[in-house]
Design brief:
The protein has 402 residues and is mainly α. Helix content is 54%, strand content 2%. β1 and β2 form a beta hairpin. α9 packs antiparallel against α17.
Length: 402
């Protein structure tokens, strides 16, 4: 058997592939994407089937352990996750150190990074039991961490998790309930929230997941690795696109201004891009966007929203961009973030919460990939090479002679 990894390192050559457009950084058995066919499979199961028939925690189990759970396995998994939804009470002081107007993503990077200061019994990456506890903790606590970042941001008291609720309902309640007031979670909105979580659960070696793997390759603890992933996700070319997309729709404002923005997106001298359009891997359609679009229609229907100006702009922009030869030629289609922003806006989330919600969803993907990497004894520290284009050797010149 040829060991491909050895072959590469012994060959004495390296590839120059900025943006890693055609370089595999690892092998994995978790997620498969066929960009031409618009296919996304988790452990072999198509995403549209999972979005329709399954739910987020079952998909978490699938990603983490490789197979769909039996009823008993699922019950056990759900109860383990439920047990860990609280965050350490002292972490509240950490939140209070941030400025009130801090972006929730800034708070999340800090709070998740600081978890290793609170949960010492799950930072030993060489201990499979500690790895398991860290995984469950991350999945369980992320909705609480994100909801508290939001509550802090809007100046409301924190709402504690309620463990008789399902994952999505619990998150909605922690975001929207005000203590001492009744808050009933609408089951259709909870289902839509669960779908958003499910559709973002994993996406193989995207930028944030690769960041988690790179951080983890040095042996960093899981909380530090996930904080690195959150930081990377924040960028507008990745998870920040959902916020950027909604802000763009608001800036467009009315359908008559769409041609002006489409013209800007096509102008090579203008850095502006249509946010929520295009994808590195999907070149025909994003299978998650199809399900998300259907979910958006359901939510808007339920809430009786069809005259929202932002949604009118979104629908018209989608239509005009898809009819434009520039977008067809470059295979630019609405991606998952184009529609998720519309749903979250309709649910009442401010745009600043869009990327934190993406981070909650993607946590299981990051953790599954981290576990896979850590359980491979042959994994190496990630250390890319570079193509040096700077000055050749030269001698130091004393400051008075420069
Ligand atoms: N609007 C206008 N033109 C675009 C867009 C866009 N949204 N996206 C790509 N293009 C053009 C580029 O200008 C480029 O044109 P050129 O060949 O004439 O130079 C061509 O399409 C290819 O673009 P690249 O940037 O090389 O494609 P890449 O695969 O590197 O980028 C990306 C993919 C980052 C998603 C890009 O399409 C983009 O910036 N989209 C907007 C941001 C966005 O929605 N990101 C979310 C991604 S999905 C996710 O994270 C869940």
């Amino acid at each position: 058997v040829i060991d491909i990894r050895k072959l590469y390192t012994q060959a004495g050559v390296f590839t120059y592939d900025p943006g890693f457009t055609s370089t595999a950084s690892c092998d994995s058995t978790i997620t498969y994407i066929d960009g031409e066919k618009g296919e996304l499979l988790h452990r072999g199961y198509p995403i549209d089937q999972l979005a329709e028939k399954s739910h987020y925690l079952e998909v978490c189990y699938l990603l983490l352990y490789g197979d769909l759970p039996t009823a008993a396995e699922l019950e056990d998994f759900e109860s383990r996750v439920t047990k860990h939804t609280m965050v350490h009470e002292q972490m509240q002081y950490f939140y209070r150190g941030f400025r009130r107007d801090a972006h929730p993503m800034a708070i999340m990077v800090g709070v998740v990074g600081a978890m290793s200061a609170f949960y010492h019994d799950s930072t030993d990456i060489n201990d499979p039991w500690q790895r398991e506890v860290a995984s469950i903790r991350m999945i369980a606590k992320m909705p609480t961490i994100a909801a508290w970042a939001y509550k802090y941001h809007i100046g409301q008291p924190f709402v504690y998790p309620r463990n008789d609720l399902d994952y999505a309902s619990n998150f909605l309640r922690m975001c929207f309930a005000v203590p001492a007031e009744d808050y009933e979670v609408n089951p259709i909105l909870a289902r839509a929230m669960d779908r958003i979580f499910t559709l973002h659960a994993d996406h193989e070696q995207n930028a944030s997941t690769s960041t988690v793997r790179l951080a983890s390759s040095s042996g960093a603890n899981p909380f530090a690795c996930i904080a690195a992933g959150i930081a990377c996700l924040w960028g507008p070319a990745h998870g920040g696109a959902n916020q950027a997309c909604l802000e763009m729709l608001k800036e467009i404002g009315t359908p008559d201004r769409i041609p002006e923005f489409i013209a800007r997106a096509k102008d090579k001298n203008d850095p502006f891009r249509l946010m929520g359009f295009g994808h590195r891997v999907y070149k025909n359609f994003d299978p998650r966007a199809k399900v998300m679009k259907q979910s958006a229609d359901e939510v808007l229907d339920l809430l009786g929203i069809d005259d929202n100006p932002i949604l009118q702009v979104a629908k018209e922009l989608e239509k005009q961009a898809l009819e434009d030869p520039y977008f067809a030629e470059k295979k630019l289609f609405p991606n998952v973030d184009f529609y998720s922003g519309i749903i979250l806006e309709a649910m009442g989330f401010p745009t600043s919460m869009f990327t934190p919600i993406f981070a909650v969803s993607r946590t299981v993907g990051w953790i599954s990939q981290w576990k896979e990497q850590q359980s491979d004894p042959a994994h190496k520290i990630g250390r890319p090479r570079q193509l040096y284009l700077g000055a050749t050797r030269r001698d130091y010149v004393d400051i008075e002679n420069r």
